[in-house]
Amino acid sequence: MTDFFKYQAAGNDYLVIDPRHTDFTVSPETIRLVCDRHRGIGADGVLYGPLEEPRAGAPVPLALYNSDGSDCGRSGNGLRMFALHLAAQEPGGWADGREFTLRTAAGECPVRILDAAAGRVEVGMGRPSFDAADLPLLDEDDTPYRGRAVSVPLTVDGDRLIVTCVYNGNPHTVVLVDDPTPRLARLLGPKIARHPRFPQATNVQFARMAGRNVMELEVFERGAGYVTASGSSACAAASAARELGLCDGRVEVRMPGGSVEISVGADGRVTMTGDAEQVAVGAFAPALRARLGRLATATAARAATAGAAS
Ligand SMILES: N[C@@H](CCC[C@H](N)C(=O)O)C(=O)O
Questions:
Q1: Site (Could be important to modulate the pK values of the two catalytic cysteine residues): which residue positions (predicted)?
Q2: Is the CB of 75 within 6 Å of ligand 1?
Q3: How far is the C-alpha of 163 from the C-alpha of 284, rounded, in Å?
Q4: pLDDT, tens digit, for every residue of 128-150?
């Protein structure tokens, strides 16, 4: 039995768990355990799918989870990994130029495998929204913030920051800073991510334009913490920079783990291009499988009790 396929993109790592190969049961507890870097396999999240047997021309559904077990609407890096996984599963192996559509809880994303050997994939990430209601973002008096959340003041620990919020399948909050560092992201990231003005939390990006079309980026993700790269974060930060007139339509986004190319069309539609690679294929050892089984049984019992009570 192959229980998992592990992929990474610029150091952002995901487990692909393909129900066609394993009897793994999804629950917040089992996701947390497999993502645990000490007790499990270790990853920033899980890509679970395909949820239906892929059919020619039909979008391929998958579910995404963060390492803390929460749902993740969309992952830019994860979609590139999942596209490579599907291509590698095809009889005959990888297929350059192959185009198909992935469907997540946040909608459909067209993907194109540009260079299978290099793991280079292009993903259509759609048109983001700057509407505060989509994040959602609250005003200082706890009522819904009205309108576009572009260059909004946000007070964190007594300091007034200016942030731009972007929803592209996930909520993102972009802060322009002079010096984005991992230290800053680890320190300020969690305070913004769980700020009371973001009732559903937010991913946080610290960005600096290093040139007209080059951005340096540090990311703190809700649900996964500090990461060395994030695809949807790179898209959100590039969209914010475009909106603020700080770049043209194509931006190289450099993160500590690696770079992605983002293009923002005249209509705001975003396309991301970057690499990903498979790093491991494996099976759960008996002890881990047994713990996962116990967690799955506890989840099923809880669901049955809740069902009986309702
Ligand atoms: N790593 C991802 C983004 C993950 C999304 C996030 N943690 C959320 O729940 O919003 C990427 O590469 O895009």
A1: 172, 221
A2: yes
A3: 43
A4: 999 999 999 999 999 999 999 99
Closest CA to 14 of 54, 45, 40, 60: 45
| DSSP string of the chain, one letter each residue | ---EEEEEETTEEEEEE-TTT--PPP-HHHHHHHH-TTTS---SEEEE--SS---TTS-EE-EEEETTS-B-S--HHHHHHHHHHHHHHSTT---TT-EEEEEETTEEEEEEEEETTTTEEEEEEE--B-BGGGTT-B-TTSSBPPSB-SSEEEEETTEEEEEEEEESSSEEEEEE-S---HHHHHHHHHHHHT-TT-TT--EEEEEEEEETTEEEEEEEETTTEEES--HHHHHHHHHHHHHTTSS-SEEEEEETTEEEEEEE-TTS-EEEEEE-EEEEEE---HHHHHHHHHHHHHHHHHHHHHHHH-
Testing ligand 1's pocket by substitution, the residue of 12, 204, 217, 232 carrying the most ligand atoms inside 8 A of its CB is 232
Establish whether 213 is an annotated binding residue.
no
Amino acid code (one letter) for 116:
A
Instruction: Quickly state the pLDDT bin for 94 (edges 50, 70, 90).
Output: low
| Residue type present at position 192 | I
Q: How confident is the model at residue 93 (pLDDT cuts 50, 70, 90)?
A: low
71 Cα–ligand 1 center, Å: 10
Q: Flag whether 107 is marked binding.
A: no
pLDDT of residue 72: 95
Measured from the Cβ of residue 290, the count of other Cβ atoms closer than 10 Å reads: 11
Q: Please say whether the beta carbons of 278 and 94 come within 8 A.
A: no
What is the residue with the minimal CA distance to atom 8 of ligand 1?
72
pLDDT confidence of residue 97: 75
Query: In whole numbers, what is the pLDDT of the chain averaged over residues?
Result: 95
